Amino acid sequence: MPVRPLDSIVDALTSVKGAMLAVPAILLIGATLAVGQTAPPPGAAVAPPIPAPAVGAPPAPTASALSALQRKEVEAIIKEFLLNNPEVLLEAQNALEAKMEKIQGERMATAIKENATELFRPTGSPIVNAKGDVPVIEFFDYNCGYCKKAFTEVAQLLDKDKKVRLILKEFPILSKGSEEAAKIALAAKMQGKYWEFHRALLETPGQANEASALKIGEKIGLDVSRLKKDMASAEVKKEIEDTRQLANKMGIQGTPHFIVGDRIIPGAPENLLELLSKHAGEVRKEGCKVC
């Protein structure tokens, strides 16, 4: 049986998001009706003001006192308004998204400031070009498809901007294999080949886990026996746990997640390289108060 347009509107309004979006529309209807009643056109006759109720008079009926018939009439007005003005829902949604982005940005700015030392001056995180003047931080997972996609543009950024300081946060959240790969990557850091290993693992198709990571380590000339020993070290475990706690404090729940100075780039947008370059240039020019 085909769905009727009015039924679709009602169903949409009864959802959580629909309810939020309908509020502005309902308020607008009320305002429209109010204006229509209180603002007569020029030249129209104006009725005398209604006297205030006498002291002790019973209160005027409230919205909760609407009869079933009145309620149906109100619902009909709302339906008609939304059908005639569907763009109101889109406007409300855009306004809500803009507001939420602003709130998220403010929260993230506070979190960056409060965790600046762990973010920009870590003791255990791998760093590429430690003398760079603009910090670019990436939280990532080796089994994250978007992280693999983003790596190409991160590498291009390093080739393009020799003054970027890349701080890599091993944040294995997708699987056991992700954690195994992260531990071996940090063990590779102890042998001085973190970036080479990192690149090889992200550029290798398929699932990342202990077996695939050790194979790559052997391929690039790492001591596999030492990798197995170091991946179980307290130093490696601490770095991964510290990163998890930091991500929790920052409200970071997915990968990849980039921080460029005091600016953020969640995910891997299509224009990632453009955004990374743009933010790096702005931080270099304007400075970073929290870095």
Strand arrangement within the widest β-sheet reads 1-3-2-4-5
Percent helix range: 55-70%
Here the CATH topology of the largest domain equals Glutaredoxin
Mean pLDDT: 83
A few lines on this structure:
With 291 residues, the chain is an alpha+beta fold. The chain contains twelve helices and five strands.
Features:
291 residues; alpha+beta; Glutaredoxin; 5-stranded mixed beta sheet; 12 helices; elongated
Structure description:
With about 290 residues, the chain is of the alpha+beta class. It has two domains: about 1-35 and about 65-105, no CATH class; about 115-285, Glutaredoxin (3-Layer(aba) Sandwich), CATH 3.40.30. Helix content is about 60%, strand content about 10%. It has twelve helices and five strands. It has helices at about 5-15, 15-40, 70-85, 85-115, 115-120, 145-160, 175-190, 195-200, 210-220, 225-230, 235-250, 270-285, and strands at about 125-130, 135-140, 165-170, 255-260, 265. It has a five-stranded mixed beta sheet, with helices on both faces. A hairpin with a 2-residue loop joins strand 4 (about 255-260) and strand 5 (about 265). Helix 1 (about 5-15) packs across helix 2 (about 15-40), helix 6 (about 145-160) packs across helix 12 and helix 7 packs parallel to helix 9 (about 210-220). The protein is elongated, with a radius of gyration of 29 Å. The chain starts with a helix and ends in a 5-residue tail after the last helix.
Topology (SSEs and partners):
Blueprint lengths: L4 H10 L1 H23 L29 H17 L2 H28 L1 H5 L6 E2 L5 E7 L4 H16 L3 E7 L5 H15 L3 H9 L7 H10 L4 H7 L3 H17 L6 E4 L2 E4 L5 H15 L5
Parallel strand pairs: 2-3
Antiparallel strand pairs: 1-3, 2-4, 4-5
